[in-house]
Amino acid sequence: MRAVALAAVLFPAVPAQAGDCAMLEGATIRFIVHTNQGGGYDTIARALEPFIEQATGAEVIVDNVTGGGGRVAYKTVKA
Questions:
Q1: 15 neighbors 52 (Cβ within 8 angstroms)
Q2: Residue with more model confidence, 16 or 77
Q3: Could you tell me the pTM of the whole model?
Q4: What is the 3-state secondary structure (H, E, C) of the chain?
Q5: 74 in helix, strand or coil?
Q6: DSSP label of 52
Q7: % helix / strand / coil in the chain, to the nearest 5?
Q8: What is the pLDDT, as a whole number, of residue 24?
Q9: Would you tell me the crossing angle of helices 71-78 and 2-10 to the nearest 10 degrees?
Q10: What are phi and psi of 37, to 5 degrees?
Q11: Could you give the 3-state DSSP secondary structure of residue 25?
């Protein structure tokens, strides 16, 4: 359930139309994952990384923020 909530926080930030992606050209997107490296959510995030980069023209960094049962990642996204 936490992954769904985290995805709901992250994906509305991605523009819905291709023309809107021009504002992200050259920017950096920090993709926060609340689990350790090599886990299921991390693998999915890293598999999506090239597709998001191609669609937006932005650099995507997958950042694993662990601890507190996802609370640390939540606070990182919230900040």
A1: no
A2: 77
A3: 0.67
A4: CHHHHHHHHHHHHCCCCHHHHHHHCCCEEEEEECCCCCCHHHHHHHHHHHHHHHHHCCEEEEEECCCHHHHHHHHHHHC
A5: helix
A6: H
A7: 60, 15, 25
A8: 75
A9: 10
A10: -65, 140
A11: coil
* Site of tokens 């992606």: 21
| Integer Cα distance of 28 and 79 in angstroms | 16
Separation of alpha carbons 61 and 48, rounded Å:
11
Q: Which residues of 42-76 are buried (b: 16+ CB within 10 A; e: fewer)?
A: beebeeebeebeeebebebebebbeeeebeebbee
User: Looking up tokens 């937006």, which residue turns up?
Assistant: 56
CA distances (Å), origin 67, targets 4, 13, 19, 48: 18, 24, 37, 23
Residues 30-69 pLDDT 10s: 999 998 999 888 999 999 999 888 888 889 999 999 888 8
In 2-49, DSSP assigns E strands to 28-33
Provide Rg for the chain, Cα atoms.
13
